[in-house]
Amino acid sequence: MEAQNSSIYSIIGGAALADLAESLYRRIGSDAELRRMFSSDLGPESEAVRDMREFLVQFFGGPAEYSERKGHPRLRARHMRFPIDQRAREAWLGHALGALDEVAGRHRITPEVVEAISGYLHHTSQFMVNRPA
Fold first, then answer.
1. What is the mean pLDDT of residues 100-118?
2. Does residue 98 lie in a domain region?
3. Which of 13, 31, 39, 87 has the fewest CB atoms within 10 Å around its CB?
4. What span, in angstroms and rounded, lies between the C-alpha atoms of 128 and 78?
């Protein structure tokens, strides 16, 4: 998937990935259950959105601003303080996939690229589960 990841940024660009991060956090902001795991500010200029935006850009082949600012992503370690069970994972994934669908339409992202990003979201969200059901 690494070669595929490198091409995603070159195909859809940073603006689409930034839009994905913003759309995801708008959705999370309206989810009473997930919302409490996040900082009070989930607006487009918040640190949470910036982290997600920079991470997505870097992961999918763009500039490594996330690592330059924060070091190695260590996703699981950074999220261990949050109780992520299967229910939280499914809620987050639902918002992420909804945001991806929304952004795909706005940025005319091909089904192949949507599938690649979706696969990453599915895999990583399962990897983040750190509490039993």
1. 97
2. yes
3. 39
4. 10
- Which residues lie closer than 8 Å to 103 by C-beta, 6 or more apart? 16, 19, 20, 23, 109
Looking at the domain assignment, is residue 132 inside a domain?
no
What does the DSSP assignment read for 81-116? TS---HHHHHHHHHHHHHHHHHHHHHHT--HHHHHH
Identify whether the C-beta of residue 8 lies closer than 8 Å to the C-beta of residue 113. Answer: yes
Report whether pLDDT(1) > 90: no
Number of compact structural domains in the chain: 1
Read off the pTM: 0.91
Asked if residue 26 is part of any domain, the answer here is yes
Q: Which amino acid is at 63?
A: P
CB-based burial of residue 92 (10 Å sphere; 0-12 exposed, 13-18 middle, 19+ buried)?
A: buried
